[in-house]
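Hi X.,

You mentioned you wanted examples for the new student's onboarding notes, showing what a folding record looks like when two proteins sit in one file. Here is a clean example. The first protein comes first, with its sequence line followed by its structure tokens.
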Amino acid sequence: MTSPSEELLPTTRRSLLHRLATAQREGRAPSLAAAVRRGGRIVWSGGRTGLEGQAADADTQYRIGSITKTFTAVLVLRLRDEGLIDLGDQLEKHLPGSGAGGATIFQLLGHSAGLSAEAPAPWWERTPGTLRPKLADVLGEQPQLYPAGHRFHYSNPGYTLLGSLVEAVRGVSWEEALRREILEPLGMDRTTYGPVAPYAEGWAVHPWADVVVSEPAEDLGLMAPAGQLWSTAADLLRFAAFLVEGDDRVLSAASVREMRTPASPVADPGGNGYGLGLQIVKTDSRVLFGHAGSLPGFVAGLWFSVDDDVAAVALANATSGLPAATVAAELLTIVADAEPRIPEPWRPLPEAEAELVALTGIWHWGTHTFTLKLTEGRGLELRPLGSKGRGAFFTARPDGTWTGLDDYYAGETLRVVRREDGSVDHLDLGSFAFTREPYDADADVPGGLDPAGWRGIGG
């Protein structure tokens, strides 16, 4: 059996190199660096460059644009986890005069606050941040395009507000909070506010001729929390590992799972969504989490698959032409498809209470049949049997109830209702009564059972 931490197969490495090389050539990128992480370490990295003396490897810095937003989201969630804010708070509670109206912190994180996509002219990505010294200069005269909470509308100014929130609550700059609370604990010493050699210069490539022009690298000022950072493929893969597993020095595993949970009403027929600072992309075979990024002179992509235990990064120094986010997803897919994750061996639970084992098996909600399984840590898994229906994982609470973790029952309470003699009458899930028999006559089912019972109907 192959360990997932061993080197990739030569054929897989060749496929990765081929995709990297064709992407750089067809996308006409001055340089392209990429890397893949699996099983806790980087298993492949590569670079292609068309410039003399220009490095392109996993330690070369590129500007990462909107991947910066994910870092800002982590800083905000840290404030929540410390009890300093609540995600349901209106921003105005902590940042009076912000201009965000009644928008909540949660809505700003998930781009459903109704704010405009961009700051007022001139184009903020290509002009110095000193042109926008105040939040009013970032938001403009009509920042609210839609009522808060009604729809997904990606907003760069929204993340500017979140960065200002961090500064207001912490009492330090966004840059200092970022360095102290995320970069240093995670060992990301090649992720910085400004470029630190070796780094790639930003270029624009002419659409109809193989010539380039240098792009300005502006300090974005107040807009920095939306897109300022420079990083490397290696550093971003460290960040991806954190976004999968969590790190109690930064954010718990539960909080990073929350980041990966859809937070906004995205009207996307493909099922794509946005969590808290993370994009969610659904393909035919897997769900990818991460973020795309771009600023003049640079494009970037970071994606990871929790189920496949694979993450990939692609970074290029071209304003357009090469879809770095797509390339990163393709590199991830090459590894996940060519060398599927070897599952852990099945093992019995370390311990299981007889009372909980007795709850497992077949249950009925009306005439719908479900299975209930016991999982690790006293958790439960409810699934429909043989047909489509609502199911979910449930985590145990100290009070003897369970909380739904996903889909329809996310946040809902599952509890055992017992008779006076201690035997189980039914399971209550958000007022739905689950019984051992369909409409069990011996259980306290709302509406009861027709006294005539189950019967045939004559012709």
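Then the second protein repeats the pattern, sequence line and then tokens:
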Amino acid sequence: MKNDDFFEDLKELDFDIAEPNADHEDRFLEKLNTKNKAPKKGKLRKLWIPLSSIAAALVIAFLAFGNIFSTPVFAKESGLAAVSPKMKETQDFYSTLIERELKSLEGERSPKTNKIINDALVQLENLEKEYNKLKKDLLESGQDQRVIYAMINNFQKRIDLLNQVLNQIQTIKQLKTQENETNII
């Protein structure tokens, strides 16, 4: 019974039951053949994204490894060490000397010397900033001798500054002991 109702509902619908034209099949096969021969845009589009990402990765890798392999061994170092082994020794010497002087300076810290030491540290920081600029100049100038001399001069200025501050601290200590001495006659 239920099936009869279903078929009755279908009879009420207006279906197009006309026969297609005689050349319909030929036209359909012709369209089908031309589609199979034409390049498929979807596949090319799907390949474009992975291929472009691979190309981008290769370019980045080339730039990264190209910079690593094209620079000399000492260029990985910074400052004077990038110039030559002798300059690396010079930089190490000055750096060690400056570190030693800084430790001495910190050992002399007291309420009377605090201001002098803090001022010296600010001046050292300015010299460090100047040195960083010189490092950039060294890379850009292709190891210009004037820049190398300026870098060595910067190290010497730091050491001179630290020596001056240590001398001032020694003077302050001597004045303190002289003030505290009592004269016995």
